[in-house]
Design a protein that fits this description.
The protein is of the alpha+beta class. It has helices at 57-70, 100-110, 148-160, 171-181, 193-204; strands at 11-17, 21-30, 33-43, 49-50, 53-54, 77-82, 87-95, 122-131, 138-147, 164-170. A hairpin with a 3-residue loop joins strand 1 and strand 2 (21-30). The termini are close together.
Length: 205
Amino acid sequence: MFKLEKSMPSSWLGVDIQSTGISLVELSKFSGQFSLQTCAWSPLPEKTIESGMIINQKAVVHSMLGLLQNNLFVSKQVILAIPDELSMRKIIQLSADLHPDEIECIVMDDVEGHIPYSMHEICVDFKVLGRSTHDSRMCDVLLVAAQTQIIQQRVDVITSSDLQPYVLEIESYARARANVQRNQCDEVSDQFTVAYGLALRGGVA
């Protein structure tokens, strides 16, 4: 979701910014195997984040910089979580005979009919999931959107921390990915589940 860079890095930082603190996990991938390089957590002051919105950006950046300076993180490429409650997701159906370029045009033209915001207020991404199980003539398309303000807040934190945003991912998708792949990296605790799933996103993108 929301890929911001085209080049593929060799390692990734999963960054999960929650109201209670920030989790960072760095993974690398060699010969098809994931390797945990570093993980760390730092608390945030109360009311720094409320209802998913970053209220005190300076406090978040300060905490992020402290994590980076006090731990052996190497990668600058970040996969970042978007809270579920601040994103919109919907599966729509389109003709399976459409060319990928046609699908993109139709999705972008019709997105306002599926999302309760105008196009200039949101960032949108989509993924073709495959043929519909209900009608083989149709394909299921996952539509994901988030308000531009939500995304920009998090991108600003990343760039202010001298990091490069690579992908933005929905939090629940990162959690699901971590649970599927968890046996490859038992050292990761529940506290880092989302950040770990985000870092995995870089390896499977």
